[in-house]
Design brief:
CATH architecture of one domain: 3-Layer(aba) Sandwich
Distance between the termini: 49 Å
Number of helices: 20
Radius of gyration: 22 Å
Structural class: alpha/beta
CATH topology of one domain: Rossmann fold
Helix content: 40-55%
Largest sheet: 4 strands, parallel
Order of helices and strands: HHHHHHHHEHHHHEHEHEHHEHEHEHH
Shape: globular
CATH class of one domain: Alpha Beta
């Protein structure tokens, strides 16, 4: 196996990108893992240098003429650990003078390691089993997907042009976030549908990002067909990882264009919010917004979240030093948090520290992984700040009984919406 080609999983562009790295080290200033570990052996340039050696040993002209070299298994294992310790935030690529799209490259290299039986690591290996048996990567019961957070007063349609996808991390680990999504949609008069707790399974991102692709085609087809049967024209979600997977990778595994458009919830509700005559309750305080990696760098969505926040009177929006496409990772990305927990906590606390230092009253997020991990990072930590999702905050500002319900009991409501 080690003598097999190391470029088979790569596109021609990615082969060129690996060769394009000049080892300039510019990315080291922005890599969140480097910021907390100071370990050059797992840095972006070192990973690219090592992988280039793998290609040289197995795919160079000399290797093709005189035979491929055996690569030491210990070296392969060390590379595998380095590639999985990455949060896949893409900051290294954002600042790369050579323009290497690392947010797409690192998962491809992980796929290569899975093919060789070297990845994924630790509990990441349980993801396919959990999704197959429970519909989510956490192995939590299907029956509890919507329990405790879905508002009892929200009426869903059997079929509708608009569908909302909650996602696994939101439904199981960031319930106030997805509750806020649903409250905002209903409060703004959007008629929408959702799949039930057996139909709405994982979008496939945890499988994709860990390089475990075997189930992806079946999952994607199952979900796309379910939404198509419900007459969906717009699929709305708030999780940046789900959005990235749906927009960029679902068409690949589906085998063609999707029969509906995928939108982030801020993109979807912004024009509705502008036209609606709904009066927003005036709030107060300083809020600071953190751009999720897969929403900003991954999808290029930075304007809509800020416009939604600016529509709320009385709040002062301030920025982190690194924001929009230059934002710092929260530490929870790339499934690395499942294995490298201490890194994730340390990275998350960097954002908490800055938000507190700048005098923000609330740290506003738009990602369930960020929401769950940053709350966890504050446990036992001396610095505290209230964390709120962007739709949770908007729901608080919306007038009427709907907003009242989300502010008084963000985790309450009906046990199940179906």
């Amino acid at each position: 196996m080690p003598k097999e080609s190391f470029v088979k999983e790569l596109s021609p562009e990615q082969v060129a990108e690996i060769d394009a790295c000049t080892q300039c080290g510019e990315c080291l200033r922005y890599c969140p893992v480097q910021e907390v570990t100071k370990n050059p052996d797992i840095s972006p340039p070192e990973k690219l240098r090592v992988y280039r050696e793998f290609i040289k040993a197995t795919d160079s002209l000399k290797a093709r003429l005189f035979g491929r070299k055996e690569i030491d298994r210990r070296l392969l294992e060390e590379f595998t650990k380095a590639i999985y310790e990455c949060t896949t935030c893409g900051a290294c690529g954002q600042f790369c003078p050579s323009g290497i799209n690392t947010q797409r490259l690192w998962p491809t290299l992980r796929r290569e390691m899975v093919k060789r039986g070297l990845g994924p690591l630790g509990s990441q290996r349980e993801i396919p089993y959990n999704i197959e048996n429970t519909g989510n990567p956490y192995g939590k019961p299907m029956s509890e997907r919507f329990k405790g957070w879905f508002p009892e007063w929200v009426n869903l349609k059997d079929t509708a042009p608009v569908a909302y996808y909650a996602g696994c991390t939101g439904a199981y680990e960031a319930e106030p976030m997805v509750r806020g999504d649903v409250v905002v949609l209903a409060s703004l008069g959007v008629e929408f549908t959702m799949l039930n707790n057996e139909e709405e399974v994982c979008c496939g991102f945890p499988l994709f990002i860990t390089g475990q692709h075997d189930m992806l085609q079946d999952i994607v087809k199952r979900l796309v067909d379910s939404y198509q049967r419900r007459g969906v024209q717009y699929l709305v979600c708030s999780c940046p990882c789900c959005l990235n997977m749906m927009a960029k990778d679902w068409p690949v595994f589906y085998g063609g264009p999707l029969p509906f458009k995928v939108l982030h919830i801020t993109e979807f509700i912004l024009p509705i919010l502008r036209k609606a005559r709904t009066r927003l309750r005036r709030l107060s305080g300083r809020i600071i917004y953190h751009d999720p990696c897969y929403l900003s760098r991954g999808m290029g969505i930075v304007r809509a979240p800020r416009e939604v926040l600016r529509s709320i009177e009385g709040v002062e929006l301030i920025e982190l030093d690194r924001h929009e496409k230059n934002s710092r990772c929260c530490g929870a990305g790339g499934a690395a948090r499942k294995v490298f927990h201490e890194n994730a906590i340390a990275i998350g606390r960097l954002t908490i520290d800055e938000a507190v230092r700048k005098g923000a009253d609330r740290l506003v997020l738009s990602c369930p992984a960020c929401y769950a991990k940053l709350n966890e990072a504050m446990e036992g930590y001396e610095r505290k700040i209230k964390i709120v999702d962007i739709m949770e905050l908007l729901a608080e500002a919306l007038s009427g009984a709907a907003a009242e319900m989300v502010t008084t009991s963000s985790r309450g409501g009906a046990d199940e919406p179906f």
